[in-house]
Design a protein that fits this description.
Length: about 90
């Protein structure tokens, strides 16, 4: 985008004085978030209660600890289905 085009877009946006459309946005309420690890905190969201599997208190990126996720059950099921389809 050239400088002239950029300036034209800026002028157009400045002329536009529209506000947010009424009655289409959700109402934000104080929301209680519960994590599977037991941690809970309050924030603002459209839903009053939120349940999450991982939060900043138990996520490996924030804690620095590697946690193994049990995917063996999924792999076993896949292998059984594969063996079944092979006959």
């Amino acid at each position: 985008m050239s400088r002239v085009q950029t300036n034209a877009v800026i002028r157009l946006l400045r002329r536009r004085k529209t506000k947010v459309k009424p009655d289409i946005h959700p109402t934000y309420v104080v929301s209680h978030v519960k994590c599977a690890c037991g941690t809970s905190f309050d924030t603002r969201a459209a839903a009053p209660d939120i349940s999450v599997d991982i939060c900043s208190n138990c996520h490996p990126f924030y804690t620095g600890q590697q946690r193994l996720v049990d995917t063996a059950g999924q792999v076993d099921r896949f292998e059984r289905r594969r063996q079944k389809s092979r006959g």
